[in-house]
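Narrative progress, year one. The postdoctoral researcher (J.K.) led the effort to move from monomer predictions toward full complexes, under supervision of the PI. The following entry was the first complex the group processed end to end, covering 1269 residues in total.
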Amino acid sequence: MCLVLSNQKSNMKLYCLSGHPTLPCNVLKFKSTTIMLDCGLDMTSTLNFLPLPLVQSPRLSNLPGWSLKDGNAFLDKELKECSGHVFVDSVPEFCLPETELIDLSTVDVILISNYHCMMALPYITEHTGFTGTVYATEPTVQIGRLLMEELVNFIERVPKAQSASLWKNKDIQRLLPSPLKDAVEVSTWRRCYTMQEVNSALSKIQLVGYSQKIELFGAVQVTPLSSGYALGSSNWIIQSHYEKVSYVSGSSLLTTHPQPMDQASLKNSDVLVLTGLTQIPTANPDGMVGEFCSNLALTVRNGGNVLVPCYPSGVIYDLLECLYQYIDSAGLSNIPFYFISPVANSSLEFSQIFAEWLCHNKQTKVYLPEPPFPHAELIQTNKLKHYPSLHGDFSSDFRQPCVVFTGHPSLRFGDVVHFMELWGKSSLNTVIFTEPDFSYLEALAPYQPLAMKCIYCPIDTRLNFIQVSKLLKEVQPLHVVCPEQYTQPPPAQSHRMDLMIDCQPPAMSYRRAEVLALPFKRRYEKIEIMPELADSLVPMEIKPGISLATVSAVLHTKDNKHVLQPPPRPTQPTGGKKRKRASDDIPDCKVLKPLLSGSIPVEQFVQALEKHGFSDIKVEDTAKGHIVLLQEAETLIQIEEDSTHIICDNDEMLRVRLRDLVLKFLQKF
Amino acid sequence: MPEIRVTPLGAGQDVGRSCILVSIGGKNVMLDCGMHMGFNDDRRFPDFSYITRNGRLTDFLDCVIISHFHLDHCGALPYFSEMVGYDGPIYMTHPTQAICPILLEDYRKIAVDKKGEANFFTSQMIKDCMKKVVAVHLHQTVQVDDELEIKAYYAGHVLGAAMFQIKVGSESVVYTGDYNMTPDRHLGAAWIDKCRPNLLITESTYATTIRDSKRCRERDFLKKVHEAVERGGKVLIPVFALGRAQELCILLETFWERMNLKAPIYFSTGLTEKANHYYKLFITWTNQKIRKTFVQRNMFEFKHIKAFDRAFADNPGPMVVFATPGMLHAGQSLQIFRKWAGNEKNMVIMPGYCVQGTVGHKILSGQRKLEMEGRQVLEVKMQVEYMSFSAHADAKGIMQLVGQAEPESVLLVHGEAKKMEFLKQKIEQEFRVSCYMPANGETVTLPTSPSIPVGISLGLLKREMAQGLLPDAKKPRLLHGTLIMKDSNFRLVSSEQALKELGLAEHQLRFTCRVHLHDPRKEQETAMRVYSHLKSVLKEHCVQHLPDGSVTVESILIQAAAHSEDPGTKVLLVSWTYQDEELGSHLTSLLKKGLPQAAS
């Protein structure tokens, strides 16, 4: 049980643990709860490493060691040079979210918005003392598991003896060429987790459905909403009865395969945290898909092979669907399509069973009943084949020219490394980049010089800035909080003032390792009035449509819930022991007198006095009101607009009679 | 007094045409809209005139909820929505939405095409009816309107079956539909959280049964099939296309695999193959084991079970055939039955309940000479077996669910009156809650006393809670405030704030009492004596002597003045406001008693 007693000034804070705008990791302190929003893993760090070849690559193993300008070669075991770029020759490492900014063992729950934003989960749940619960939708968990499984598999099946660390030394890092010199937070970089850690992390997840209301400690309610970006992807509402935070992460308004985004539920937010916008704001996904298809067709028609570095789930479903419609018209019916991933089969199977998480068109197909994705038919007709790896069956089935979908999009590990080595030397072949997470030039750097064609068709269906400003106008949050990258134009397009968030008041921005105080003006809290108490209340209409009732009640607070119960019957003080015992149970019953309001009409008051047996009443006018004199009783009553003063002898009976007469004309509050 | 009202239009002390009206918090909800298998006249559908005699369905009902696709729960839906006329929302889960129209169409075909009924709903009506359906996810809170919300829980029983919580404010009802508390070979067990509804409406098909272990029944079933096949017999299993059919297929499939049996198993085509597709695509609704292994092996892709062709029935040698419909009242199952009935080596296994009047019911009740159409008499020599594979909770399961949900009261439907009576007593004894079992058309009224949620101003709450943090924190405290009620918006604020918000001025009521005191000393000295006296008597209060000679007790002012006529008497003017009434009154009576002499 924890007691919520928040200041009127906000003690709601946002701890920003990741600097990557599309792989966020924030911790929200909201009322008495500590909620982690996503735990994205920044994998761009791997671009600084040499690729892990699945098959021994003479080229990669013969790259020269790198030496300082003065010829000092003490780093040549750790760093290798390729076409003017320097790479770390080591097991690749990932850039973790900040773990020192806040004690992560205090995190109560982790909310996951989509499968790309959970890749750091094992690092958090297994190594920080975390004991809470993780919430995510079923597709997010299942596909997230596949992504992690693939990642672990890619790295573990190519054991690398060497783990370089010398170069990370701050004094040495300064001496290195870019981009290694500028790599940030290198001390937090970690090697990949194991499958055991993945399983343990995933076992902490509790499955949730869209629009499910999940109560946290009685104080806060969290709800996932469809975000339209991927299977099971969600935005989250975090709210109490009087405060609402919307967490928007990886959302899309395009109609691809997932259920459309739920925008209406984001309305009336005090704070909207906005992350996961498109990384390619200038590219139109539809146009990119068209370009993808035509480049693919062109290459295979000329006898070349096409390599598509990709994740095993997500956009690949849409690409396969486009190809399904395109293959025959483009005369590609005889070209084999290969999908190679340790989780290829699972991914294709899983995509077909999440009918409830799909867009309406696909749902309708399931009702027929037919598989929602046409890749089922591609597989049935043998146009698409999938393999766990290029070893085994694939090597005997392999026919060229062909199209290969395989990972990892960073080109640093996975089967894609082999295909780059295999096809890189021929200009007939093409590599088409569709995943937007890695700069394709950096991804290609360790393969230079390359003869194969490189096409960049990034498909990022997440919100662009035009959609964001429309969304914000629609849902009207009081405040917007976002990564700093969104509050200025992209560095490469500094003149494009349209490529940033434009809202009023201006968005509050955060960067890695910052703590933001969120602007809340809490004024109300929910309280329950018990039925017995409610029955005893006497409402009176003060103005048309507005009624009032004075409430004197006992306040009980338990598990962050407040309840008002009727006050105990006043027990007559009977003195002695008995009274003492009674007072233990009775609340501090110093009955407060209500405030009074209204005014006293003199004439009616005098009439009332007469009716109650007073005689010899004299009324005098004064500047502000009247004085009523009861000469016999030597009593004087001053009546003004907002005050009444009864001046009398010490005759309690008389005073109480007069008091009650006066009170009849006044309203109590 | 707020109340919850429940009226079964069907399934009240009966199995069939489930249809229950619930009024809660001013909202009216219809739970299920089924048909009755035992009737072919008006009684096959619920009596909607109960509602329509007072107006239109759409005006009366806020929503309709369908628990699962069995026709005794959804069979009247197109009649209800298209022929009687209802345009509001109909809620059901995705699998129910997918499968329900197919069963409705099947039902329509049998009624119209086979039995030649007129004035039945049409295919188009089924389509139009399904357009009014809104699909819900498990655990999703669906806001029907601003006040009414519903939430679905997993119920087992058949693919997509759900229990529903219906909630208005702090009042709620849970309706179970049909459910199963033990996982079977393809579905999981029903589950609900401790949601403490005011009322739990539960089915009670097996109100008095404690079933033996399912393993035993399964073993028995397999043994019988195996024996029949071994002796070269043909086994007919009449089933409905969805539900138990899949369960039994999985059972036989794994048995065939384990025993390496070669006799063919057939499944009558059409619906059933399609049905297996639904199970494959909605695999997330099946049990954990199937979900976990579906990538390696989809349990609904049967290796040993092949599609049936009418000509196969005459093939020599043993075989097992699943054929629809389940009660042998028409169609393929009846055709095959007629072919095989004369041979004592053959066997028919009825895996579920059969309604009176069907061939299934006749042979189960021991009849061996059946009169078929055309005065033909069919002699049944084949072995007839009955085996309950219905996926309903038994008495133990029902008690378990009541324990899980912790309702304030329970209402039984979908069962036989006698058995309900027994279960009702059991529930009342064990859980100490009242239990009802209304007949159709009978209304149960439950008074409720919901608490009223209001917004309390943080200032007022914190003022109180800060006091609550004092050493005496355990002791509950009295809170005083003003409740402002505007439309449906209730706010509790401090009295000062209430006055301010309403633009009202405070009216100050002040009293000044003259207390005559016999004291010849100077006023200042009198005041001093009053001060020391009160200081010693009123230890719990703040008593002060001000420089101007007056004395205060908290905010009560006491001044001493000379008497205009009697120099031996002083007049104490005690002045307080209405808010200090108790203390002021107490003070005057105290002073009236005079001052102790020792004080001088």
